[in-house]
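Thread: "does anyone have the structure for this chain?"

Original post by V.I.:
We have the sequence but no experimental structure in hand. Need at least a predicted one for the grant figures.
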Amino acid sequence: MSANNKKPGQGKRILLVEDNLHNRRIFAGVLTHYGFEVEEATDGAAAIEAAQRFQPDLILMDLSLPVLDGWEATRRIKAIDGLSDRPIIALTAHAMSGDRERALEAGCDDYMSKPIAPRQVVAEVCRILGLERD
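Reply from O.Q.:
Generated one for you, tokens below.
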């Protein structure tokens, strides 16, 4: 942290869309530790509703979700006025050839394949939001 103990994520909102409870706890815990305000959603439909209500600065989107998958949820969020410019990072176990391109075509701004170290996720969130992380 910086000398004034301000956490890098202070004042920033992250929507974490993940259906796996273990992954949600880990990612939410580390993001909160770095000062981010975290809202959670467990499926694509809930993600769309949460994005509109919570107005996150960035969305972490699992692609394999119940109800509505992450690809379609991303497309729909990117089509909403006021949310189209929000960065979305795909967090996914989909690591087959073409999956990264498919995620980017759906509107994701970046792609990270699981397993992912929680600090690596924080580093990428900070990079995309232009935040300094000590």
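V.I.: this helps a lot. The helical segments are 21-33, 44-54, 70-78, 99-106, 118-129.
O.Q.: and The CA atoms of residues 89 and 110 lie 5 Å apart.
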